[in-house]
Amino acid sequence: MTFSPRTWLVGETVTAALLNAEIRDQLNSMFSAWTPYTPAWTAATTNPVLGNGSLTGQYIKIGRTCTATLILTMGSTTTYGSGNYSFSLPFQAAAATVSYLGTARLGAARIWLGHVVVSSGGTVVTVTFDTSPTDTRGTNWTGAIPEALAATHTFRFSLTYQTAT
Fold first, then answer.
1. Taking the CA atoms of the chain, what radius of gyration do you get in angstroms?
2. Fewest Cβ atoms closer than 10 Å to its Cβ: which of 17, 26, 94, 104?
3. Residues 37-53: pLDDT tens digits?
4. Strands 54-62 and 35-37
5. Are 147 and 80 spatial neighbours (Cβ–Cβ below 8 Å)?
6. What are 139's strand-pairing partners?
7. Is the per-residue pLDDT at 3 higher than 90?
8. 1 pLDDT more than 80
9. DSSP 121
10. Rounded mean pLDDT, 24-41
11. How far is CA 65 from CA 43, 74, 94, in A?
12. Helix (H, G, I), strand (E, B), or coil: what is residue 132?
């Protein structure tokens, strides 16, 4: 709910309702519960199909700063598509001269720590993990890299970024 503050006029009568709207309600919006969103999971070549897995996201936005989190749990009927994975964000990122980085975690046969990246003006994050246990050069996440995905594997990310509006 946070927005630009009101411009007060000379001689205007300040009422309880105005103060509530301009101060109380704005402060409450900064401390309210996170808002759920439904992210899209896509791949560069063939999109994955969630099947009986689950994918949920949530965010909190204060001004133009947004922190988004996501959790994906693979199900027994999930198919993994092909190509580099990406996930949609709740808001478009600002067109800035920087890319925004967040943390990522894949719980599979091993625990993989990586990061997510959203480019200037972007609407999706891409995910990078080590290529393999012996090759720690980062590569974009696919259904086979860093390891083959299977039911019950989980993926999470958290990212704070500046939004376009």
1. 20
2. 17
3. 999 999 999 999 999 99
4. antiparallel
5. no
6. 129
7. no
8. no
9. T
10. 84
11. 27, 30, 10
12. coil
Neighbours of 28 (CB within 10 A): 11
**Contact assessment for residue 70 and residue 156, using Cβ atoms and an 8 Å cutoff:** yes
Query: What pTM value is reported for the model?
Result: 0.85
State the residue for tokens 């999706």: 124
Please give the structure tokens belonging to residue 60: 């909190």
Q: What is the 3-state secondary structure (H, E, C) of 6-31?
A: CCCCCCCCCCHHHHHHHHHHHHHHHC
Q: 3-state SS of the chain: helix, strand, coil percent to 5?
A: 10, 40, 50
- For residue 43, what are its two tokens? 């791949």
- Structure-token match 């899209």, residue found: 40
- In DSSP terms, which residues pair with 99 in a beta bridge? none
Rounded-to-integer distance, Cα 165 and Cα 2, Å: 12
Q: Which residue has the tokens 């919006």?
A: 29
Report CA-CA distances (Å) from 106 to 39, 47, 71, 74: 17, 19, 10, 11
Structural tokens at position 8 = 């007060």
